[in-house]
Design brief:
341 residues, Neuraminidase, five-stranded antiparallel β-sheet, globular, disordered N terminus
């Protein structure tokens, strides 16, 4: 409607601005095998990756996939931070929208490269916990659909853009907070914290654990929870750190567990996961790296798109789901992974 209204009706609402959500509802897809390259650097990888292992593509056409988590009811949730969505994939091949505006609802959303949610996980009550880039907070989706804010400020200053997260068995939540969700990243004028931190939430209290890393990203506990692995998205220093976890949940003794700086490939370190034998899976330059618990590179897995994060799924926990750029993939392995309780 253009121009003034001389006799406006009594039941109208003025709308100054609005946002629209656009997404396509694809028909159920059939998993199909894609080009798979497994580089075997140590014979120990044969106990992990079957000789005939193949990556399967489950869905595609997204802007950028991230943050997958397997839900015990038998489906996978994953983020599209660029599209500001959380999607649901079910074993029948159906992909549906689980949540729109998953990380930001502001009218200036067009300024953001990745306004949506990133990391997803489940707490001990199977409630979805979400890192929201644009809203710069960590939230929990309650069973009744309400949102509970777990953290959005540290010492009065807004968080950067929470990235990945993992629960410890005692119920405390660990998460990384680089500025990758801000429009201008490290140079964004909205940035309030002078560092990129690793944080812990316990009993409603937010605690800063370390500011060692330029771009702390994926993180995962060792099976016995004595160590926390944290990947650093820093093109100049592509390292996976390992910290000792103290009895009170704080971190100490951080050291470089594995250095990928000289490895070919443009990407730095992103998602990190661990299996029940203690092997560490890292999204690093050139593909998915598999490291032993002793810090030895066992080999890599590469598909048609670079995996940025992963989640263990299926009833037996032996399928590794990969969020890789515009697609969703999976590969069956011989080992069980550690996933949210």
């Amino acid at each position: 409607m253009n121009g003034p209204i001389s006799n406006p009706p009594g039941n109208f609402i003025w709308v100054r601005s609005a946002t629209l959500d656009f997404y396509k509802a694809d028909p159920p897809g059939r998993a199909r095998e894609v080009d798979t390259v497994v580089t075997r650097l140590d014979k120990a990888i044969d106990d992990i990756v079957p000789k005939d292992a193949r990556i399967e593509k489950l869905a595609g056409g997204f802007l950028f996939t991230e943050g997958p988590v397997w839900v015990g009811d038998g489906y996978l949730l994953f983020s599209d931070p660029n599209g500001n969505m959380i999607y649901r994939w079910s074993p029948d091949g159906q992909v549906s929208v689980f949540r729109t505006k998953s990380g930001y609802a502001g009218f200036d959303v067009g300024e953001y490269g990745q306004p949506g949610s990133n990391g997803l996980t489940l707490d001990r009550e199977s409630r979805l916990t979400i890192n929201e880039h644009g809203n710069r907070r960590v939230t929990r989706l309650e069973k009744n659909g309400q949102i509970t804010v777990l953290a959005d400020r540290y010492q009065g200053k807004r968080l950067n853009s929470p990235n990945d997260l993992v629960y410890r068995s005692d119920g405390s939540l660990y998460f990384t907070d680089p500025p990758f969700g801000l429009p201008k990243l490290f140079d964004d004028p909205r940035k309030e914290l002078p560092f990129s931190g690793v944080f812990r939430i316990s009993d409603g209290r937010l605690q800063l654990l370390t500011t060692d890393l330029t771009g702390p990203n994926g993180l995962a506990f060792s099976p016995d929870e004595k160590y926390l692995y944290v990947g650093d998205w820093d093109p100049k220093k592509k390292v996976l750190m390992r910290y000792e976890v103290s009895a009170d949940g704080t971190l100490r003794g951080g050291r470089v567990f594995f250095d990928m700086t000289d490895a070919p490939g443009e990407d730095a370190l992103d998602g990190v996961k661990v299996d029940r034998q203690g092997n560490v899976y890292v999204s690093g330059p050139g593909g998915l790296w598999i490291l032993s618990a002793q810090g030895k590179s066992l080999g890599t897995i590469r598909g048609p798109e670079h995996p940025h994060n992963m989640a263990w799924g299926d009833d037996d926990g032996r399928t590794l789901y990969l969020t890789a750029q515009t697609g969703l993939y999976r590969i069956r392995l011989n080992v069980q992974g550690i996933r949210p309780q």
